[in-house]
Amino acid sequence: MPPAPSPAAESAEYQGRSARRGMPFASQRRALASLVALMSCCLALAACSLLPGNQPTTLPTAAVVPTTAPTGEDEKYTCAGIPDSSLHAMFGPNITIDTYPSSPIRASECRVEHPDRESIVFSSEFWYVYDDSDPWYFLASGREESTFTFDGIDGQGEARTSSPGAEYDYGSTVFTCGDHYLALTINHGSLMAGDMRENLIALTQSALPWLCQDQPIPGLDKTMEQARPYYAYPTPLPSPTPTNTPNN
What we know:
Elements lengths: L6 H14 L4 H25 L34 H8 L4 E4 L9 E5 L6 E9 L15 E5 L7 E6 L9 E7 L2 E7 L9 H17 L11 H4 L21
Antiparallel strand pairs: 1-2, 2-3, 3-7, 4-5, 5-6, 6-7
């Protein structure tokens, strides 16, 4: 019986057979290593996709805010003209809704804080255009600009918003009727349900009766004209004369 071949001889013979079959042994080993690495990456990606929070999601394309303001007796308007329920629909039940105490008209300026952020995620203001004032002056402007209108309403809207998943997740809308305007701003859009632009337009639409049609502002019970300060006219009215009262 001939002696058994040594391991070195077996390896040389195997390499020789591999070379005769058209692929060098070293190339086979590199191909096998690459295949193993590729399979490992695929398994890792598959495992990650099954983890909570990594499920594929559909980006929002519609509003979660109703286009008609609720009128029930129990409906709350912390911000004049803006239903609390619409803010909760966008940002959930645990938000803090507050107004700016220094507003010239009570509750005309509003802000919303979210428990996951130490900053404001929503703000609103209704006011008047006069003295060449620009409603956009202090607003956060997204990079996608568009306009919008509503059937039967003599007014014009402008949106400067961001798409879901964009690096800049903030934006605003302004709608003007005559010299009345409503400005709405979203910050940290990732915390909001629904599409930013569609939510703001829907919220604006729900405000049209008091913004453009001379109906009382919910939560304030005055119309825009009844609430207008004397100086907020294109031509300011004379300052009211203080009433003198006798000293007691």
